[in-house]
Amino acid sequence: MLCLLLGTGLAGCGDMGRFQTVATPATVAMPKPKPAVAQTPATEKEHERILASYGGTYDDPKLESLVSKTVDRLVAASDRPDQGYKVTILNSGAVNAFALPNGQLYVTRGLIALASDTSELSSVLSHEMAHVLSKHAAMREDQARQAAIVTRVVTDMSNDPDLTALALAKTKLTMASFSRNQEFEADGIGVGISAKAHFDPYGAARFLSAMERNAELKAGKSSLDPRAQDFTSSHPATPERVQNAQTIARQYAAPEGAERDRESYLAAIDNLVYGEDPSEGFVRGRRFLHPKLGFTFQAPDNFTLDNTAQAVIGVREGGSQAMRFDVVRVPAEQSLGDYLNSGWMEGVEKASTEDLTINGFPGASATAKGDQWQFKVYALRFGSDVYRFIFATRQKSTESERNARETVNSFRRLTLEEIQAARPLRIKVITVQPGDTVESLSHRMAGVDHPAERFRVLNGLDRTAQVKVRDRVKIVTD
């Protein structure tokens, strides 16, 4: 019986075979794996430093797909398709991009927001690839190592803070800039790679112009934050470079007709976070808000606030007054008055120390004098943290005293409604309707200075150009 069942079963399997076709295995060309990016302890350390300095990674699948496809096209068109690249999008509103010698490329969301189409983005990526291919990034790394050694020697040998600061400044200068020849060489190679990848080679000239105009908008606000140093700091966008990029582009294509890929680019950046990340606190006009920590304060009239990695810095128009707001660790058992007199700041007048309460928070204040500046210092205990306000003025006056007092008195908890309403600014892509103008569309922009000029720069419009009906344009909204 068992033999019969087995036989029946085998017969059944054989019978089923009549309805199946045996496919002949086809030879399929498998795609070649992408070249790997070699990691070393030095590049891993630099990668972590970059992430810490630029707000970490910005996770957006649409953007990552756009950037990845763009790089793949550029790599295939380059003379070194065997060179591996890995691109990281940084969560920073600064306009910046850079490369490590091993092929790790970095681009900020601020740069992606400024670019108007994929050909402009490709010009930046191919430029950074050119620095890798030409070994510029490796040369700069060697220079940085040598400069660091010089700085360490000077620091060890000298107790003169001015001399040490000078050495450090020179180190940063060496790190910051590629040489003029390296920039021109990278422009030439980059434009060539973009053109061979069938992107509009004029994208480089357009983006260099956009960077130059963006830098002009920032010129009135001298940022003290290293995160805010933009692409023009290390890649100067001079008129000569713009003209050079145009000349190179003419070797590959006429000014019109090459692929810009604007529509798919705008679709990918729609809803992109613009400017500061609210999770780290942000500036809105004269107000600083930190939804995560739950507080806010307002700077005096005519002050410009800058949210840096270490502190919020405020400078009065003309530079005669300044302020700093930051957080410090103070033991719970130490009084704030004792902290102000504990020696962390020179010139504190002990007799000026005063205990006070600011909107329910325990605090203390004191005055201090330096050679050229006079200071008013406040410390406030907010939960387990202590926040400091340091006000500096070249000449003490009724106005400077009032500015300090009113700013500190504005420090308070955010309401639940304010925390929930504290949303980031975002890029929104809209369609131009009949009757729309640059001026009317710029009035729809939120949270930005110089809205009309900002709108023009974001959309690649020169100072006289007007929008056209059915054009797709970027605005900034909250």
Radius of gyration: 29 Å
What is the strand arrangement across the widest sheet?
8-9-10-14-13-12-11
Q: What percentage of the residues does DSSP assign to strands (E)? A: 15-25%
The overall pLDDT, averaged over residues, is 81
How many structural domains? 3
User: Please, how many helices?
Assistant: 17
Could you say which structural class the secondary elements and strand pairing correspond to?
alpha+beta
Distance between the termini: 79 Å
| Uncertain stretches of 5 or more adjacent residues | 1-30, 142-176, 221-231
- Residues in helix, %: 40-55%
Main beta-sheet annotation: 7 strands, antiparallel
Tell the overall outline: elongated
Task: Count all strands and give the number.
Answer: 17
Keywords: Hydrolase, Metal-binding, Metalloprotease, Protease, Zinc
GO biological process, one term: proteolysis involved in protein catabolic process
Protein name: Zn-dependent protease
GO molecular function, one term: metalloendopeptidase activity
